[in-house]
Amino acid sequence: MPNLTDNFGRSIHDLRISITDRCNYRCVYCRTGTNGAAFAELPFEDYLRMARILVGLGITKIRLTGGEPLLRKGIVEFVRDLAKLRTSEGKKPDIALTTNGHLLAEIAQPLKDAGLDRVTVSMDAVDPERFARITRVPNGYESVLAGVRASRRVGLDPVKINCVLLRGFNEDQIIPFGMFAREERVVVRFIEFMPLEEDRVWTPQIVVALDEVVSRMSEYLPLQEIAHEGSETARRYRFSDGVGEIGIIAPVSHPFCGHCSRIRITSDGKLRTCLFSAWDHDLHELMRRGATDEKLTEFIVKVVEKKEERHHIGEPGFVPASRTMVHIGG
Ligand code: SAM
Fold it and tell me: How far is 229 from 240, CA to CA, in rounded Å?
């Protein structure tokens, strides 16, 4: 069976493709609010060729992201084409989407019909006013909620919600999100804030860490940890009465780099082996110059071998990534 492996013995089977770095939200912890898109978008056929080669090399999961991926016309057809790929075991790759959910309600059914398996919707508050302050877009909350509900209705399963917690801003939303998970039957995942924002405002003090989330949520209802697979980013917990699940993604307080199985393609076709990479690798330039599939494969294998061992968040001499989250694809 083909297998992409790095020099630390990690097997890479998870691919994230950013299909645009445009976004219709200006979340305070992600964007400056004034900067726009910075990088090109490729025709879908170029991402498809990269995905086909990578699936041939052992990728089994593909997540579409951005920027805001639903801003790209043609995403349904792209998902349909991705769904025709086959892994070495003859299976369709698992196809997921990360979105802010603003445009999701209308397109959830066509995406599901095209072969999308799962969706993650980013929401950083469950209160409409706070939601608008974070996203800097008026009246978004109702659209996103409609998107979440439409996703459940059409059978995208599971529907996950990503919430980035910032101290002094939305950590009072922890328990309301617990209630939301139970009422809406979605998996809410809290993400520790990472130094990947355009404004470079990150400090360790702003991060609301895993232990604090668990202890705050336990004031509402006791939690039981669920066993999770090594390569899963989130620690998982269920409420003690069995209704509802939350997850915590803790790259700052509990790094999981040793189990990382991910690589990324940026909207302009660069291969990135870590969110915090200081370099990216120009796969698209090779394609543009007419490289064969064999040449592209050779390039990918070499780049992946040199995947970074781990990130260095919070350590002295930390070097910021060469791109911020919205321009990488989260
Ligand atoms: N627009 C889509 C969305 O809102 O989900 C996809 C792109 S967005 C960059 C992907 C995810 O990254 C979102 O869940 C967002 O909250 C998260 N994110 C952005 N900046 C982050 C940061 N500095 N630390 C942790 N997560 C971040």
Answer: 21
Nearest ligand 1 atom, CA 202? 23
The answer to whether the beta carbons of residues 66 and 37 sit under 8 Å apart is: no
Residue partners of 283: CB distance under 8 A and separation at least 6: 50, 265, 269, 270, 271, 296, 299, 300
Alpha-carbon gap, residue 257 to 309, rounded angstroms: 7
Mention every residue, 6+ apart, whose C-beta is less than 8 A from residue 14.
59, 60, 61, 63, 231, 261, 262, 263
Distance CA 154, CA 95 (A): 15
- Phi–psi pair at 249, nearest 5 degrees: -100, 115
Distance 183 CA to ligand 1 centre (A): 24
3-state helix, strand, coil in the chain (%, to 5): 35, 20, 45
Q: How does strand 234-239 pair with strand 245-249?
A: antiparallel
- Show the tokens assigned to 249: 């993604």
User: What is the CA(121)–ligand 1 centre distance, in A?
Assistant: 10
Spatial CA neighbour of 285 closest among 12, 5, 42, 36? 42
Chain segment 115-150, per-residue pLDDT in tens:
999 999 999 999 999 999 999 999 999 999 999 999
Does the beta carbon of 164 lie inside 6 Å of ligand 1? yes
pLDDT (average), residues 21-40:
93
Report yes or no on whether pTM surpasses 0.70: yes
